[in-house]
Write a structure and sequence with these properties.
It is built from 17 helices and no strands. By secondary structure, it is mainly α.
């Protein structure tokens, strides 16, 4: 089968156009019908579509291309299937309560999803492109290939099992208000995020092998290495944009102010790594400096009741508003 050249020889333009069209189609349905159930499904399946199309257009069947393409298809299909199942059970997605009726706010989320899908797909897109496949390819099984397969396998198991563990825990009425510290969640507060991150770095390691082993040269060499931006973007999103930053401090604040098992939750926070799985008895002894650096538990995630709870802030404002000496008189 001959290689098909479409718009550019890295398949960047065609995959971008397909992604935009695919997401806009689902956006039109979701906005018109005020329907939340297709949003995450559209994101996950978009990865599958891009991998199939670029692999078919490449006209080659190198083992590395097939493995990398299958890996991102497997990840995207599992993710979209799980999220579709979950939203069908829950009925609606609370993330869109302030966006669902606002055209531009809702569209903004879908544009964000377009960028996420297209960028994270880059390792497979470029690996399948004519500018890379024109070069001889090393036999599959290099050290980087093996490392990539291992990372993908570990990440896929962790993410898949963690999603099921959390869903089953929350589905049990007896666990209402309790801390999910079962399974992988006893070693990491966000094991599914950790799994997702190492999946993408695993796929990148497989995709970059032809360049790292000296087979691919010139611009294609730079392009393959440049696709690491996909794994980096996903990591940045999960750490600072749509993941930990929206769950750590806000989640702790909500539990503290509602009195919903705060003491158990605080103990879980102290003994459980925020992202990288680590034995709880050992993590409880890890110095604060290492938590804030090596283990990525940055100060922006930490909840301090004295600083961040609304009750503490209100009390502080009340004390500031008292006349001088009022506090001392009251205590006297």
């Amino acid at each position: 089968m001959e290689t098909v050249h479409v718009l550019d020889d890295y398949y960047l333009a065609i995959t971008l156009l397909i992604t935009v069209a695919y997401q806009l189609l689902f956006f039109a349905v979701a906005f018109s019908l005020k329907f939340d159930k297709l949003t995450d499904f559209a994101g996950g399946t978009n990865f599958v579509v891009l991998a199939i199309i670029t692999l078919a257009l490449s006209g080659h069947a190198h083992a590395r291309q097939i493995v990398a393409s299958l890996f991102i298809m497997l990840w995207g299909a599992r993710l979209s299937a799980f999220l579709l199942f979950r939203i069908i059970k829950t009925g609606k997605d609370d993330r869109f309560d302030d966006k669902r009726d606002d055209f531009f706010k809702f569209l903004g989320f879908w544009i964000f999803q377009m960028i996420w899908v297209w960028t994270v797909s880059l390792p497979v897109t470029v690996l399948n492109s004519p500018n890379v496949t024109q070069y001889p390819q090393p036999a599959f099984g290099t050290g980087r290939d093996i490392a990539g397969v291992i990372l993908f396998a570990i990440g896929f198991v962790i993410e898949s099992v963690a999603d099921v563990q959390k869903y089953r825990f929350r589905s049990n009425p007896a666990n209402k208000g309790k801390v999910c510290d079962a399974g992988f969640f006893s070693w990491s507060r966000h094991p599914n995020y950790f799994g997702e991150i190492i999946i993408q770095f695993g796929i990148f390691m497989i995709a970059v092998s032809p360049a790292a082993d000296g087979y691919v040269k010139g611009q294609a060499f730079n392009a393959l290495y440049g696709t690491i931006v996909g794994a980096i973007l996903l990591t940045v999103l999960l750490l600072f944009v749509s993941g930990l930053n929206l769950q750590e401090r806000p989640g702790a604040k909500k539990r503290y102010e509602n009195g919903s098992g705060w003491e158990d939750y605080a103990r879980w926070l102290h003994r459980t790594s925020i992202l990288i799985p680590f034995p709880p008895p050992l993590y409880a002894r890890v110095p604060t400096l290492l938590r804030r650096t090596l283990f990525l538990e940055f100060p922006m995630y930490v909840f301090d009741p004295a600083k961040h709870s609304d009750a503490a802030k209100a009390q502080g404002r009340a004390e500031e508003a008292r006349p001088d000496g009022a506090g001392a008189e009251a205590r006297a």
